[in-house]
Amino acid sequence: MSKTLYKVTFLNAGKVYELYARQVASGALWGFTEIRELVFDLGDGVVIDPTEERLRNEFGNTRALHLPIQSIVRIEEVERKSQSAIRDAATGEKVVTPFPMPAKPPR
């Protein structure tokens, strides 16, 4: 039997984050929701999703994420994980991290 999976959508610094987690509960800190066991793609394939990589770098070592209640947009119980996302809060468009390009050579 597989464990329950939650999709947590919340506001952070003008962006809407979508993360997946195995545990969601009212936190011990009053007014906060506790998110534990964050789920990320393992990245075994050739194609690397830059958004997933950015989320893993930011939250990969997090044991518990304590989110203020007012920052949470939605918590959904889902069957399977889809692509995590970071969206602009105003437009709803995905925030794409540009591929690093080498600097222009001096003339």
Mean pLDDT: 81
Percentage beta strand: 35-45%
Count the strands?
A: 6
Distance between the termini: 63 Å
| Run of helices and strands | EEEHEEE
Helix count equals 1
- Poorly predicted tracts of residues: none
Helix content: under 10%
Structural class: mainly beta
Gyration radius, in Å: 16 Å
- Quaternary structure annotation: single chain
Structure description:
Strands 1, 2, 3, 4, 5 and 6 form a six-stranded antiparallel sheet that branches. Strand 1 (5-12) and strand 2 form a beta hairpin. By secondary structure, the chain is mainly beta. The chain has one helix and six strands; from the N terminus they run E-E-E-H-E-E-E. It has one helix at 50-59, and strands spanning 5-12, 15-26, 32-39, 64-68, 72-78, 85-88. It has one domain (5-88). This is DUF1820 family protein. InterPro entries: DUF1820.
Short structural summary:
The protein has 107 residues and is mostly beta strands.
Provide the fold topology.
Elements: E1 5-12, E2 15-26, E3 32-39, H1 50-59, E4 64-68, E5 72-78, E6 85-88
Antiparallel strand pairs: 1-2, 1-5, 2-3, 2-6, 3-4
Features of this protein?
9% helix, 107 residues, six-stranded antiparallel β-sheet, DUF1820, 1 helix, 6 strands, globular, DUF1820 family protein, mainly beta, single chain
